[in-house]
């Protein structure tokens, strides 16, 4: 099936089988391998991307469901001039990644949430609930939580 | 003056840039032209005679490029044994099952296709005929040898004793003896990236293999030997690795089958294990059944301990047969128990193969010892912390030779426990507990664990080279899987050379560039690999001294090494880069420090909901002594992660099979990993007893949370419910605790 989507600001025409997941279309058809597959059944969240601004598990969506949609992946998180997103800076400074495999999913999850509600970082329960969506086996999560809070503070002060 | 190498500083990692931008290069991310994808046809039964494998329909599937079972291959590669070949003798493990299957999920055939979808189509069209045999799933049953996995051979692959037998009179005369059993379930490593390999035959008979691995040189040697290739034509490259935790040290049958298929097709072939495969048929850890006996005198001083442990090593002993002996040797724990005797067996079972999982034998030992110490404390009515203090190996007793044959290098166990209790505010929680008990409130318990572990083993290679442009290359035989070697090894080398750490670039994990190496497991990277690089850096300085002495015609003794990587002699100054301008300036080191024994104390406070059985960890304190710490940010991060895995072991994780040996925990909705919501309030503290055997002083780090947390949490739950810890079995599910609270 032919579909058309806007991925990280770029218009893409894809010819995909109906059964092809969005994750595989992004990774294999578009070469955007930053979106990782950790479980392929919607639990770990490593494959989280944004579809029309909402964080979704790209392993649980078929590519054809995204016809006409706007998709943002981790490769589209930094500014066009390469300036890192505050979350990318904060994840590094807080040691919020070790192997880094789950990191793109956490970044896309948190980026969508902070865009929707910049005050989320000040709501401990809301932030905890959000980050409970995804699995990390290396960090024990605390550094991820701190990184999201730091990124929110950086955004609110206009810094990067 | 500040150390430009930032030794000991919590500097941010240099690895993170590509990873946060989505530019990591994990095996599945590699874009290799013409690469085919593999899927495995796996046994649906846990034990049976393989009658036939029909791949006709698989091969007819459009897009399938090849499908093979053992019967289609002239020569099925055999899986090599890791570390303990004795247990694997006469028990061949073909990469694809030949006449018998010994665990559900065992690879029976490989299907290679243009993409993974088609490969799975082909896999699903394979027809296997198996004549089922009774499945033996636990070590006690299997150890009776009523159902042999290898006809004519015992299911007991390894049976070792460690320490002298305890004089029976000790048990008779002791003031108190406790005798109990434990079951430590099978666990799944569950790195978020499961196993992955890509093998590409090159023109000229060379083979390039990218694998998500911890020990590239071992993998290279094993692949070459198993496939009948010269070692020097195999190149193993380990790209980014999405977590490993012991499950990626081995040469698994799937790796051999993928590589054999690539060679047959003369095409690159990749296999990326999916989560269902990893949980149902992938590596397992722990899986021990233990019986422990501990005797003490009237003052609570330990007289003797006896442990019998059986590990269920799965259908093949090749990867896990050495683990029970590790447990046996660590059974002394932190205590000066005069007599310790252990019998440890590796028993074949119709379950997926056992291999090291973070802690690898030490968590099982700490569990047996530390839960039993609490059991004894309860029996004799003594505070468990006080009972530990009375029995610790004293700080002035090091080096301490244990009855189980290890030499503990250094330590101060009372200091670690005291710091843990102080940080926890132990008296306050005891008061809170008394208050709740008086008021019939929600049960609250406090548990401690004083652990000793073992780190590092074997030699390691390191090299440092100075370049004329002022940069340096550090080459290591280790292999990072998320531990930040590029950052921390650069700190070690730069600090020794007195140069900015950003000038030091690390090379590792490529067998064509690194001449030899052992890899990263057993908490060995900084202890052994860091030491090798430190030694190489000092040898580089020595060579630079000799070079400048010759150039300037001055005695070496007059040469002063100053910060910034510069050397001075009689008014002449040369940088290391200048000294490298005309001749390579490079030094190598091969070091083999003895294994070290990091230690610490963990304390947990829990409350248990009597009606729902839910355990809530209110507070967790971890005191660890890793010796010299090169980068606290990295070490604390690993401690946190290890604690999270320890909580998983204590409360959530278990690989479950049905009565026929078919896996029941096949998704992450059944095999439960901790999320952020399960992480309690954690405080990390440290003591520092440098490794006396090395210049660097580092001991292993990163596995302690898996060792210390489970006994601390179980002891705390038992304390809350006022029951013997041995009546609880991990994971402490709500049902387990609800029943225990009745």
Automatic annotation (TrEMBL), chain A:
Source organism, top-level taxon: Bacteria
Annotated GO MF terms: 2 iron, 2 sulfur cluster binding; metal ion binding; oxidoreductase activity
Chain ranges of the 2Fe-2S ferredoxin-type domain: 1-77
Pfam assignment, any one: Fer2
Keywords for the protein's UniProt record, in alphabetical order: 2Fe-2S, Iron, Iron-sulfur, Metal-binding, Oxidoreductase
Biochemical pathway: Alkaloid degradation; nicotine degradation
InterPro entries membership: 2Fe-2S-bd, 2Fe-2S-bd_dom_sf, 2Fe-2S_ferredoxin-like_sf, 2Fe-2S_ferredoxin-type, 2Fe2S_fd_BS, Beta-grasp_dom_sf, Diverse_Oxidoreductases
Protein name: (2Fe-2S)-binding protein
Originating organism: Streptomyces brasiliensis
From TrEMBL, chain B:
InterPro entries xrefs: Ald_Oxase/Xan_DH_a/b (IPR000674), Ald_Oxase/Xan_DH_a/b_sf (IPR036856), Ald_Oxase/xanthine_DH-like (IPR016208), AldOxase/xan_DH_MoCoBD1 (IPR008274), AldOxase/xan_DH_MoCoBD2 (IPR046867), AldOxase/xan_DH_Mopterin-bd_sf (IPR037165)
Residue ranges constituting the Aldehyde oxidase/xanthine dehydrogenase a/b hammerhead domain according to the UniProt record: 21-134
Protein name: Carbon-monoxide dehydrogenase large subunit
Organism superkingdom: Bacteria
Statement: the UniProt record of this protein carries the keyword Oxidoreductase: yes
Keywords assigned by UniProt, alphabetized: Molybdenum, Oxidoreductase
PANTHER family: ALDEHYDE OXIDASE 1-RELATED, XANTHINE DEHYDROGENASE
GO molecular function: iron ion binding; oxidoreductase activity
């Amino acid at each position: 099936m032919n579909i058309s989507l806007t991925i990280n600001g770029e218009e893409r025409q894809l010819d995909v089988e109906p059964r092809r997941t969005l994750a595989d279309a992004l990774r294999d058809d578009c070469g955007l391998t930053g979106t990782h597959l950790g479980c392929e059944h919607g639990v770990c969240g490593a494959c989280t991307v944004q579809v029309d601004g909402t964080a979704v598990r790209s392993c649980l969506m078929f590519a054809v469901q995204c016809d006409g949609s706007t998709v943002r992946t981790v490769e589209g998180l930094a500014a066009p001039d390469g300036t890192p997103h505050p979350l990318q800076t904060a994840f590094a400074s807080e040691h919020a990644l070790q192997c880094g495999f789950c990191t793109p999913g956490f970044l896309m999850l948190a980026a969508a949430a902070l865009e929707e509600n910049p005050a989320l970082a000040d709501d401990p329960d809301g932030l905890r609930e959000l980050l409970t969506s995804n699995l990390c086996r290396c960090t024990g999560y605390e550094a991820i939580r701190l990184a999201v809070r730091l990124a929110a503070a950086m955004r609110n002060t206009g810094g990067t | 003056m500040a150390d430009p190498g930032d030794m000991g500083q919590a500097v941010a990692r240099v690895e993170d840039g590509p990873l946060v931008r989505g530019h990591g290069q994990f095996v599945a991310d590699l874009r290799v032209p013409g690469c085919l994808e593999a899927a495995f046809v796996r046994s649906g039964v846990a034990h049976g005679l393989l009658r036939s494998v029909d791949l006709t329909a698989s091969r007819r599937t459009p897009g399938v490029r090849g499908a093979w079972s053992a019967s289609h291959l002239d020569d099925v590669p055999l899986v090599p044994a890791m570390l303990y070949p004795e247990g694997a003798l006469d028990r061949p493990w073909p990469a694809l099952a030949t006449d018998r299957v010994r665990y559900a999920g065992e690879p029976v055939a490989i299907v290679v296709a243009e993409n993974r979808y088609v490969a799975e189509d082909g896999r699903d069209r394979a027809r296997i005929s198996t004549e089922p045999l009774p499945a033996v799933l636990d070590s006690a049953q299997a150890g009776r040898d009523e159902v042999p996995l290898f006809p004519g051979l015992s299911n007991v692959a390894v049976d070792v004793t460690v320490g002298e037998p305890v004089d029976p009179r000790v048990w008779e005369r002791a003031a108190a003896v406790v005798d109990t059993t434990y079951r430590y379930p099978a666990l799944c490593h569950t790195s978020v990236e499961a196993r992955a390999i890509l093998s590409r035959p090159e023109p000229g008979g060379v083979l390039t293999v990218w694998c998500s691995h911890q020990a590239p040189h071992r993998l290279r040697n094993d692949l070459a030997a198993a496939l009948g290739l010269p070692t020097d034509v195999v190149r193993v490259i380990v790209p980014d690795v999405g977590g490993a935790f012991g499950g990626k040290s081995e040469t698994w049958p799937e790796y051999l089958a993928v590589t054999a298929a690539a060679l047959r097709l003369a095409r690159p072939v990749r296999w990326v294990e999916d989560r269902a495969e990893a949980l149902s048929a992938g590596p397992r850890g722990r899986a021990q059944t233990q019986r422990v006996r501990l005797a003490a005198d009237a003052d609570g001083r330990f007289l003797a301990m006896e442990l019998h442990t059986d590990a269920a090593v799965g259908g093949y002993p090749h990867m896990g047969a050495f683990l029970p002996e590790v447990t046996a040797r660590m059974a002394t724990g932190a205590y000066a128990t005069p007599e310790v005797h252990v019998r440890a067996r590796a028993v074949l079972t119709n379950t997926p193969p056992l291999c090291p999982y973070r802690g690898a034998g030490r968590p099982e030992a700490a569990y047996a010892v530390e839960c039993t110490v609490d059991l004894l404390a309860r029996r004799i009515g003594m505070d468990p912390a006080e009972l530990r203090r009375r029995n610790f190996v004293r700080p002035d007793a090091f080096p301490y030779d244990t009855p189980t044959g290890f030499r503990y290098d250094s330590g101060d166990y009372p200091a670690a426990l005291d710091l843990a209790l102080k940080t926890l505010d132990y008296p306050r929680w005891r008061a809170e507990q008394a208050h709740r008990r008086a008021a019939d409130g929600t049960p609250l318990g406090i548990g401690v664990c004083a652990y000793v572990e073992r780190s590092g083993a074997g030699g390691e290679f390191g090299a440092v080279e100075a370049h004329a442009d002022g940069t340096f290359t550090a080459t290591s035989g280790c292999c990072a899987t998320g531990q930040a070697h590029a950052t921390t090894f650069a700190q070690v080398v730069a600090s020794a050379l007195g140069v900015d750490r950003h000038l030091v670039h690390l090379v590792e994990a490529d067998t064509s560039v690194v001449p030899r190496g052992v890899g990263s497991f057993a908490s060995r990277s900084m202890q052994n690999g860091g030491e090798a690089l430190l030694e190489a850096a000092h040898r580089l300085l020595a060579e630079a001294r000799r070079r400048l002495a010759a150039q300037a015609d001055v005695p070496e003794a007059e040469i002063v090494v100053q910060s910034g990587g510069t050397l001075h002699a009689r008014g002449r100054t040369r940088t290391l880069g200048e000294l490298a301008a005309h001749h390579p300036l490079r030094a190598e080191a091969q070091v083999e420090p003895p294994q070290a024994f990091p230690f610490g104390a963990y304390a947990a406070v829990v409350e248990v909901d009597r009606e729902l059985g839910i355990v809530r960890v209110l507070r967790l304190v971890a005191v660890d002594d890793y010796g010299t710490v090169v980068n606290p940010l990295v070490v604390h991060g690993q401690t946190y992660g290890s604690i999270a895995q320890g909580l998983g072991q204590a409360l959530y994780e278990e690989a479950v099979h049905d009565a026929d040996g078919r896996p029941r925990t096949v998704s992450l909705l059944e095999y439960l990993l901790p999320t952020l919501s399960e992480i309690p309030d954690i405080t990390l503290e440290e003591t520092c007893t440098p490794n006396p055997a090395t210049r660097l002083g580092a001991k292993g780090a990163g596995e302690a949370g898996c060792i210390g947390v489970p006994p601390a949490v179980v002891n705390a739950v038992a304390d809350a419910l006022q029951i013997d810890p041995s009546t609880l079995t991990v994971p402490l599910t709500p049902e387990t605790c609800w029943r225990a609270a009745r």
